[in-house]
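Hey L., structure's done. Input below.
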Amino acid sequence: MKLVNQYIIPFKGLEDGEHSFQFDLGKTFFDEHEILEARDGKIAFLVVLTKKPQLLSFNVIMYGSMNIRCDRCLEYFDIPLSYNGKFIVKFGEAVEDNTDEIWILHQNDHELDLGQYFFDCVGLSLPLQKVHPDNPNGSFGCDQEMLKLIKMHSLTDTDQGKDIDPRWNKLKDLLNDINKN
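Output:
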């Protein structure tokens, strides 16, 4: 179920000055955006809008956590996320000239939907490799049983030499000769 108008700031009726808004993202947001691969989470966005006659300035702070799958052991864990950003909204006719920091809205627009912006902030805040944090003793925080299974089924350096087609050894020799030169 998609919630309409959930991430919209109606700026037209606001007086000039500073205005604060808070948006809370939860399971519904993550269900709508399955590409984030999160099972659940609680993320808050604090948006401070400074309104001037022909300009809107936004300061955005995001904090919270998501429940995602570990890339190493495939167990779910909570990963903390944070983000600080700023952007400006100007009014004009060329609304397709938007950049990351400057958005241009048409003079007749009266509200701003931040749903896509929130999605982008969450996605960009995720690390490339999502793994459990290490334990205080320095060991992996992953599921130890799963790590044992992975190690048991993966090839080691000594396993790689066993029962290899001899044609691959010839190709490996060629590669070694190339690397020497």
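The helical segments are 27-32, 115-125, 144-153, 157-160, 166-180. The beta strands are 8-10, 17-25, 38-52, 55-69, 76-91, 102-105, 111-113.

-- N.
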